[in-house]
Amino acid sequence: MTSPLLTSEKLNDLQRESFAYFVNETNPANGLIADRTKAGTPASIAAVGLGLASYPVGVERGFLTREDAVDRTLTTLRFLRDAPQGKSATATGYKGFYYHFLDMQTGARFGNCELSTIDSTYAIAGMLAAAAYFTAESRSEHEIRSLADGLYRRVDWRWALDSGATVTHGWKPETGFLPDRWEGYSEALLLYILGLGSPTHPLADESYTAWTSTYKWRKIYDHEYLYSGPLFTHQLSHVWVDFRGIADEYMRDKCIDYFENSRRATYAQQQYAIHNPGQFKGYGKDCWGITSSDGPGWITCEVDGRERHFFHYAARGIPDGPDDGTIAPWAAAASLPFAPEIVLAALQDFDNLKLRMNNSYGYKATFNPTYPVTSAPADCWVSPCHLGLNQGPVVLMIENARSGLLWRLMRQCPYLVKGLHQAGFTGGWLGAESPRAWCTNASEMKPASGRAQRIAVPSNSRPSNEKQPDGV
Amino acid sequence: MLPVEFRCCLTETTGDLPHFWEHTVGGSHATMGLRADWREQLRRCHDELGFGHVRFHGILSDGMGTLVDEQDQLLYSFFNADQMWDYLLSIGMKPFVELSFMPTALASGKTTAFNYQANVTHPKENTQWATLIHKLVAHWVERYGVDEIRTWFFEVWNEPNLKAFWPGSQESYFDFYRCTANTIKQVDATLQVGGPATAKDGWINEFLAFCEKVDAPVDFVSTHHYPTDALGTTDEDTETQLAISQRSIMRNWTQDTRRKCRGRALYYTEWNASSNPRDHLHDEPYTATVIVKTMMEAKGLVEGYSYWTFTDIFAENYFPAQPFQGGFGLLTIQGVAKPSYRAFELLHRLGSETCLVDGIHETVDAWVVRNSNAITVLICNQALPRHPIRTEHVKVQLTDISPPTDVYIERIDDDHANAKNAWLQMGKPQFPTPRQVEVLNVASQLVRETQTWKYENASAWLDVTLPPHSVAAVTLELSTSHHEGAMA
User: Fold this and answer.
1) Which of A215, A454, B205, B343 is most buried, by the most CB atoms less than 10 A from its CB?
2) Is B357 left (phi over 0), alpha (psi -120 to 50) or beta?
3) What count of other Cβ atoms lies within 10 Å of the Cβ of residue A4?
4) Chain A with chain B: Cβ pairs closer than 8 A
5) Do the chains contact at A458 and B456, CB–CB below 8 Å?
6) What's the half-sphere exposure (Cβ side, CA atoms, 13 Å) at B353?
7) How far apart are CA B195 and CA B204, in angstroms?
């Protein structure tokens, strides 16, 4: 109960280090961002979205200049606008969606990967965040807004239903739609909201009802919440959407909101680590963060007289597993807005384990104290890579806790607000406006009267002792 | 140390803030309510903190003489109860009537609780109990008028899920409830009756399922909770119980209980920062932070949240002697206001509309509440015992605000509004003299101090330092004409 908390200075350092990934792992010619720090890696469209959303944070915190951020954003958006969409081998995507992995140089589909509806959603959300932030009357910033708007309007969300009620995971030109659909609570909440908000190809309202009808409410370690095992599923939609005090019909019935749900999910993670049913090394009050991630590999071996099975990539989750003792520090960090009092204790514990030592981008993707190693800086197995999909939530959720920047920006996004209304969200900052209060033409859409159209950012709001990040 | 930052756009409102914490307050047991000093303290709490109802144990206990068996003859006397209600109505308050405890004349057993020998057994015959309830409620309807009684709340019993207060079974309590509720409804079908008045948010699902099954009336749900109800064993001492709890645990429980109420009104008829009747934290600024945080986090979840209790003139085990002995009350036996009293004073003066605040911290919370001519920024720095906490420098930015005409700050911390600190410094007198009480009263005051602020481009900035376990309320007064202009 007396665990020290990570200081605000160290938290700022972590945010800056994690942000540096997006500065250095981007192809400046087209804005594509590497999936991970590994030679020959493709770009990840999700990382592109998280990068676009992170550039405003970088500007606000002095990690890069506004001019640099504008240039990077424009390069990315222009490239995505001009890259071919269609069924050809060189296409970047189809129907406004994008392949999960793209060639870092050409943007063409990487290997035979899937066109991913969820990873495309992160890209679209990142574009909309950029449009909400870059509001100056300059030609460049105007173009950012115009490009983001066009790319969002281009997405055919309805097509992704494949004539069903819920959205498919994706599509391949060789075999058509993937058999899996987005059902059961997960990070896809944002997908449904943005899909419902589209002025051109919106999801039908019944899509949202079909999605929430697959929810499972559970009680885990004295915490009742809308269940999903991997921690990141309780975080990714929250990067962009301020769910505090707003609720759809499902959550109104439960008397909580999705923000409180993520708080409970975070506390359940901690409780799982305290109970440690799998008897993994290191697990405890200040060492948790179990989510979909890479692990040591598909290896079975004996550890301390017990046979252990380790995995490579797996959708690890609590309390039912799978679990092999792999912990993702970034996932703990991404819960900062929900439960800062236990997250900061965990981050201090990770610091004590020297998990950030010799890492220029903050935490590596994962570590595993149970997996046997002969020697390593952290005295246990540590993932060799950083991933863009992990770096982004660290940068963005630290910022949401510090200043609410992403939330403030997206509260001004008319598409997001329309999507929330179509999904039945009311209360809190949404007020009680009915869906019919919104026009269907974007040029006529306005935020509720009285609300500021743009967020004024006073020039002296930045902390004066901010340092420029290394390498900028 | 980087500052903690909060931002609020005054036009991003998040709805009304009903002052549900003023609905009801707790107050020991019935015979204490016949004392002049208890009454004077209650009147003061009504006038200064806005409490509307008061709830206490034992309106039916033998000490009130409501029903006695005199040579095998049941004698009813409602005189003392009437004295109680007459007084409440005279000062503008109403009862939240806890129907307890069992008159010995009707009791099925001898099990008692508290030093006033409250009989906690069920009645020998439900018909005799029903007769008592019917006579009593009908009498009050006759005395005060049915329109008045309809604004009261009748709560059946106290904590029947604890053997100490109900040795019988859950089922026997449910039958007892049904009998009582139906009897009250026979007097007037619109009188408000509810239960189960449990400890630890208990029995809600089972209670409502039972009432639905047998068609027993339930106008509201009532229950209790304390942060010490948290995970872990009750063998632990109070501080350990709190230390193993989690921040905002009261909000979690309230949300879960609200869900179980299925749309019915929810009243917490007891709560405090701990359930220990001799907990030093009750006298200290820590409890003020718990009050502010718990109340602000219960918005939209409860209709009433009754703090247990308004005074240390309270004797469930023994009557306290010295002024600061960890009693539940907002006021000491001498009437000195504790930091907890000042927390309710700050809450009472809040406006009625909340604004959205951005910024999340591990120990500091901020709320912005407005009315037509003032904005209050309410900030608390709070952590559970043994959890890390430090002095924090807080920067608040308010946007879309017209120029304030005046800005001031009031604080509750070790050095502000902290009468216990003054008492320690004067050598802990066990029986303070009237002069010493006066010094303590002065030390307990909220002091309005000038707060520096900066205004530029429709934004105001504030810098506030909060020591550990502290509350600060910054009030920005607005000119009414400017405000109207800004809103046009």
Assistant:
1) B343
2) beta
3) 13
4) 107
5) yes
6) 13
7) 9
Q: Is A436 exposed, middle or buried (0-12, 13-18, 19+ CB in 10 A)?
A: exposed
**Type and span of the H or E element at A95:** none
Interface predicted TM-score of the whole assembly (ipTM), two decimals:
0.93
Question: Catalytic annotation on B12?
Answer: no
DSSP readout, A267-327?
Answer: HHHHHHHHH-TT--TT-BTTB----EEE-S-SEEEEETTEEEEE-SEEE--TTT---SS-B
Q: Note the pLDDT of residue A432.
A: 62
A282-333, pLDDT tens digit by residue? 999 999 999 999 999 999 999 999 999 999 999 999 999 999 999 999 999 9
Residues 261-290 of A with CB under 8 A from B: 263-264, 267
* Mean pLDDT of the region A3-32: 96
B270 is a catalytic site residue:
yes
What part of B 153-172 touches A (C-beta under 8 Å)? none
Q: Which amino acid is at B474?
A: V
Q: Closest residue of A to B384, CA-based?
A: A1
Cα distances (angstroms) measured from residue B469 to each of B249, B378, B415:
17, 14, 11
Task: Write down the pLDDT at residue A376.
Answer: 64
Neighbours of A79 (CB within 10 A): 17
3-state DSSP percent of chain A in helix, strand and coil, to 5? 40, 15, 45
Centre a 10 Å sphere on the Cβ of residue B441 and count the other Cβ atoms it contains: 15
Residue of A nearest to B17 (CA): A428
Q: Report, in this order, helix, strand and coil percent for chain B, each rounded to 5.
A: 35, 30, 40
User: Measured at the alpha carbon of residue A266, what is the angle toward residues A262 and A270, in degrees to the nearest 5?
Assistant: 165
Q: Do B255 and A255 touch (CB under 8 A)?
A: yes
Q: Chain B interface, mutation test: which of A14, A255, A409, A465, most B Cβ atoms within 10 Å?
A: A255
With a cut of 50, say whether residue A36 has pLDDT above it: yes
Chain A nearest-CA residue for B240: A1
With a CB-CB cutoff of 8 Å, which residues 319-338 of chain A face chain B? 336-337
- pLDDT, tens digit, for every residue of B344-355? 999 999 999 999
Question: Is residue B418 within 8 Å of residue B412, measured between CB atoms?
Answer: yes
Give pLDDT, residue A3. 84
Q: Convert the pLDDT of each residue in A39-87 to its tens digit.
A: 999 999 999 999 999 999 999 999 999 999 999 999 999 999 999 999 9
Q: Cβ of A162: how many Cβ atoms within 10 Å?
A: 15
| Candidate list B270, B316, B345, B410, residue with the active-site label | B270
Burial annotation B81-108 (CB, 10 A radius, 16+ → b, else e): beebbebbeeeebbbbbbbbbbbbbbbe
Tell me if B7 and A7 make a contact (CB, 8 A cut-off): no
**Contact yes or no for A170/A114 (Cβ under 8 A):** yes
Strands annotated E in B71-130: 73-76, 94-99, 112-113, 118-119
